[in-house]
Design brief:
By secondary structure, the protein is α+β, with helices and mostly antiparallel strands. Helices cover 46% and strands 21% of the residues. It is built from nine helices and ten strands. The protein has a six-stranded antiparallel β-sheet with strand order 2-10-9-8-6-5. It has a four-stranded antiparallel β-sheet with strand order 1-3-4-7, with no helix packed on it. Strand 9 and strand 10 form a beta hairpin. Helix 5 (168-182) packs parallel to helix 9 (240-289). The protein is flat and about 90 Å long. The termini are far apart.
Length: 290
Amino acid sequence: MTNIITQPATEELISLKDFLEKTPPANQVTVSGFSTSQPYAGAFNIEFPAIELYCQSPTCSGVRLFDPKNEPRIGLEVSELAFVEYCCRNCKENYKTFALKIKLGRDKKILTTFKFGETPSFGPPTARKVLDITGDEKEYFLKGRQAENQGLGIAAFAYYRRVVENQKDKILDEIIRVSNALAVSPEMLADLVNAKKERQFSKAIESIKHGIPQALMIQGHNPLTLLHDALSEGMHAQSDEDCLALATSIRTILSELVEKLSFALKEEAELNAAVGTLLKAKAARVGKSR
């Protein structure tokens, strides 16, 4: 026997799918719109739905449907601990596990759910290119990402600030590499090289007078200046909510800068290849005409 539960009109509840996909760990919500089955007297299986998650396997590398591999069995009004495992429907290689505490209401219409955690971690994946530029600070960046996902603004800001300031040279090295590929002005290149010699991130950015290549600008702004401004806000005089907004901005700007660095190099390589192909074809035509 299967009971299809509908959401009561008088309560603001979320679906089990939304809870699993969108609710960060350390949060409790009430859920409706789920299904149950009763294989034995007094015992109910909670039928978990298919959910959409990012699959990191090489086969997928994108958002895919994940199917539950097990169904928790609980009694009425009894809190139970449960590990619910999901598997990617497409590649059948990537798994997601949720650690939950669940309690089924007596009317079987409400499920009180608490998420202890999940693995892989909650939130969108971090691009490999971003992790590469964080160098030996990668673990701190991932801790910052975890803190951001959990709404811990001061912690997230502190982790991201450490990563950006300590990886100043690596960030500037990548910008210099792109600048050389794009053949920027000698003045701009000299600024970037000299900025790398500065020990402090703030002084390094303030010393760049001629900016960076236009291809790396974000909505018309220098991303290094944007990062400098965010880091200069400090976290001691800010609320946790303000720090969370700053932390998110730092991660977003850094991620966008990394994407633009990668795209600029790829675009330049493709352009050089195209020009080389055309010149080679022209040379071949000239040779035949002689």
